[in-house]
Amino acid sequence: MKPPFLASLLMPRLPFYYGWVVLACVCLAGFARQGPAVAVLSVFVTPMTQDFGWSRTAISGAVSLGGVLAAVISPVIGPMLDRRGARLVLCLAVLGVGLATMALSLVQSLAAFYLLFCFARMVWAGPYDLGLYGALNAWFVARRQTAVSIATLAQMSGLVALPIVAQLAMRDGGWRSGWVAVGACVLLVGFLPAWLLLVRRPEDVGLAADRVAGAGAAPEPRFSRAAAMRTPAFWLLSLYTVLVFPVQAGVSLHQAPHLIERGLAPITAASAVAVFSAMSAVASFGVGFLPRRWPVRHGLLLAAVLLGIGSFALIGVGAAHDAMIAGGLFGLGIGSLMTLLPVAWADYFGRESYGAIRGVALSLQVLAQAAGPVLSGVLRDSTGTYTLSLLVFGTLASLAALVALAARQPPAIAAR
Fold first, then answer.
1. Rounded CA gap, 56 and 221, in Å?
2. Structural domains in the chain, sorted by start
3. Transmembrane segments in this chain: where (predicted)?
């Protein structure tokens, strides 16, 4: 496939591997991804409900519905990613998110809000995720963990910056100006670099993906989706996903209300959430520099253990330092999970059909994420506390740790 003109012009003049340019494009697109993130939407909840009289539940439902739609579309988008490369998928994702969030400034009804936000959230959870990690995994093998960790950190920086962008715009022009600012930021930061510089894979331009040098380096796996689904590793990684992502979403959303119910001041609860976020960023960056000779399943095991310990520790929180420790441990688990799981899918099954394989797994992931907050809320309403939900989440994380231990990389002979 012919690369973009600017990429063809730039590539021969670079004194370093072109994959680092691809990583820079992915980082910018990942920063821009957060337009429809929950943290951004939270800035708009109060002014929009005041203007329209909508309930908080009505607005929150758009987040879950968008995730369900992503579960439907991801298996369809995955094979297109493998055929056409990440450039088309990622650029369409940036355009979709940017234009939809800008158009939210025009809504006059709940139906219009659902139409636009559910679309943006669907793209955020499905095609955008596939495009980002598809691009990275096509260009990086030996340094895959490092590349993914840097890209994950860029996404987290967008999660910090875009709510601030929205809030600053809203200060002078109201919530409608806030959505325009968010959408414009998505388009300006995310689109042009990806459109002008992304190349499908190094083999298209006569390069080879970075590899561990030496005659003893293992050959890269090459699984089709059908072949991958015949391996125990595919189903074990899928089971790990189903077990661990309700924990990730359920505890993250309800962490602050639980701490307040335990008698901590709101500012203390907010500080614990800040520690949780900071530790997530530290872990997501740090695990990228683990030696590649260490099995990635051991990292997934550690992530699940940290999530389990953090969930159980939150149950008995009674003081500020307890909340900081529990939140920090949980955050370390989240950051490790978000970086290592995309790496595991690529390491186990290769680059050739990554989109098709990851598309199936991503459907399970977004459905599991949607189930976590609902489960936590139902158990809280039925028992009056978050204790039972945290016990359930800690148990799920413990089971996920056992599954990770069993999820060994499949033999390459099973490929195709």
1. 47
2. 5-202 (1.20.1250.20), 225-414 (1.20.1250.20)
3. 58-81, 88-107, 113-135, 147-166, 178-198, 232-251, 263-287, 299-319, 325-348, 360-379, 385-407
